């Protein structure tokens, strides 16, 4: 991404988050961007954290896979200077909008970005793999511009979506992960490879080791235990 595009993205996000008129910016189908991105979910907690200095703070940005982490192992976030900023169902465009208040404003040392699966599921409409990758890369470059170390995680394996079956996500996950890994290698960033450790031969999460046959997308406790070992090793 060139510098002009990065500056434009940062300015756009600043406008959306901080401009009083942003409440009137509508999205397709009605509503506004602030509500669409659910900026209010962590607003009060963010206001408290901003006042607390923590030099080793790590923000985990993501969707329900990140949000659910705290339910399976709350101590992972309590015992470490980790902040969970996952929101269920979110796609990368929504995360990009809330990246400043939920990540940058908290002045973390590092950010762990885990995203993409809801884009593939089409939760907020059709989006190409390339656009999903570009949104994740944009979050990364905004973080780097604010002296935040970046850890980009592979999208977790998935063979089907119970809420939207028949989309054949496995090859799309592989394609997205390749783009993200290549970007990390090219830019000397850490690529956190959950996929290789958790996928079965069909490109889905291992059942019943890491997810249930009724879920297929979200890790169980054993799955999160694997993820914790991988990310803790990367963060050292």
List the helices and strands and how they pair.
Elements: H1 3-18, H2 33-36, H3 43-50, E1 58-62, H4 64-67, H5 69-72, H6 74-78, E2 82-86, H7 92-102, E3 110-114, H8 117-121, H9 129-145, E4 149-153, H10 170-187, E5 190-192, H11 194-198, H12 221-235
Parallel strand pairs: 1-2, 1-3, 3-4, 4-5
Helix pairs in contact: 1-7, 7-9, 9-10
Order of helices and strands: HHHEHHHEHEHHEHEHH
Strand order across the largest sheet: 2-1-3-4-5
Biggest sheet features: 5 strands, parallel
Low-confidence stretches: 15-29
Helical coverage, percent range = 40-55%
> Cα-atom Rg, whole angstroms?
17 Å
Percent range for β-strand residues: 5-15%
Tally of extended strands?
5
Mean pLDDT: 90
Multimeric organization? single chain
Given helix and strand content, the structural type is alpha/beta
Count of runs of 4 or more consecutive helical residues: 12
How far the N terminus sits from the C terminus, by CA atoms, comes to 28 Å
What is the molecular shape? globular
Key phrases:
alpha/beta, globular, 10% strand, five-stranded parallel β-sheet, 236 residues, 5 strands, 12 helices
């Amino acid at each position: 991404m060139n510098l002009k595009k990065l500056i434009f993205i940062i300015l756009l996000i600043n406008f959306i988050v901080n401009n009083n008129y942003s409440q009137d910016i509508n999205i397709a189908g009605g509503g506004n961007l602030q509500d669409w991105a659910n900026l209010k979910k962590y607003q009060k907690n963010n206001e408290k954290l901003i006042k607390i200095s923590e030099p080793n703070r790590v923000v985990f940005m993501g969707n329900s896979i990140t949000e659910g982490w705290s339910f399976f192992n709350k101590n992972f976030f309590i015992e470490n200077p980790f902040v969970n900023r996952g929101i269920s169902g979110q796609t990368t465009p929504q995360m990009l909008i809330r990246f400043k208040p939920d990540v940058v404003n908290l002045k973390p040392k590092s950010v762990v970005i885990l995203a993409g699966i809801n884009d593939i599921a089409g939760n907020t409409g059709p989006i190409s793999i390339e656009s999903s990758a570009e949104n994740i890369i944009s979050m990364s470059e905004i973080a780097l511009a604010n002296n935040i170390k970046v850890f980009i995680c592979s999208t977790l394996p998935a063979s089907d979506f119970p809420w939207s079956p028949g989309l054949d996500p496995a090859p799309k996950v592989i394609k997205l992960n390749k783009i993200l890994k290549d970007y990390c290698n090219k830019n000397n960033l850490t690529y956190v490879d959950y996929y290789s450790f958790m996928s079965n031969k069909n490109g889905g999460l291992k059942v019943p080791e890491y997810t249930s046959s009724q879920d297929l997308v979200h890790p169980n406790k054993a799955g999160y235990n694997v993820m914790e070992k991988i990310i803790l090793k990367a963060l050292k």
